[in-house]
Amino acid sequence: LGGTMARGDSGNDYETEREARISRNFEKLKGLVTERNINKAMVSVVASHGGDAKENASKWRPGRRRMSYGRRRGRVLAPVTRSLRKSSRLRGVDPGAEVFADDRESGSQAEEPKLLELEEYFKEHGMEVDPIRSDGHFTGWVNEEVCERYGIAGDPDRAWNENGGGQFSFKIKKSDIPSHLRGRGWSDARAFSSTLLLKNPNAYFYRHVAPHETQSMGEWTEEEHNLFLEIARTFGVGTKWGLFASHIPKRVGYQCSAYYREVIIPQGLVFDPKFKLTHGGKAVY
What we know:
- It comes from Chloropicon primus.
- Residues 212-264 form the Myb-like domain.
- Residues 87-110 are annotated as: Disordered.
- By secondary structure, this protein is mainly α.
- The protein has 2 domains: 2-72, no CATH class; 132-284, no CATH class.
- It is 42% helix and 3% strand.
- The chain has 13 helices and 4 strands.
- The longest helix has 36 residues, at 13-48.
- The radius of gyration is 37 Å and the shape is elongated.
């Protein structure tokens, strides 16, 4: 082929086209020769492992993704094992040393970060505070206006017993969730709690606002902030976040709990004996 190409006359159109066809055919032939050689090599490799070498080689083509030999032969590969995570409590490690490692200078030989009592923290930082003193418990009930609007009983025992009663359990079964709520993409806890407005308002308001409201997201307003402190001063704060949230329109219990931990405690607005602070000002329950 090489000799034929060398004798072509570039000045003749016919010969030029002929040489071009020969060149294209030559490249195709090279590809076929390469593939044939690869197939021969595959035949010898597969034959060395047993099985129908000719059949297996004929199924292989360059560039095709191949399954591992062991899997083709029906072998079961050993599962990959991964070590399970353990909490700091199970590993016997002080949680402050891991969760708040950012309080420690990188690469320093400083002691493990120490959790400070609230009074100790604000004194160390020279901050003058006049906190609301709380024992860490909310002692109120659902907001009165909300109770009247939706017919919620005046105390938790009546609310529970007048709406089915029964044994309380944290476990939620699929059968507890109404069918019309299963397609909303909610968690089981959120779906089930939406049915408890009258029976267990604390569970309801932890994840839901009152039916006539739309939940607010994002930063808290000054009005919401002041209302939070007023409720804390009147009823205490630290537990039953659903009931607490019923007093703050458009906020739910988990939002109030997060605001308490991330803003109220670190700013010294409430002293709760169940909390301590790191040197960096993060509240630890």
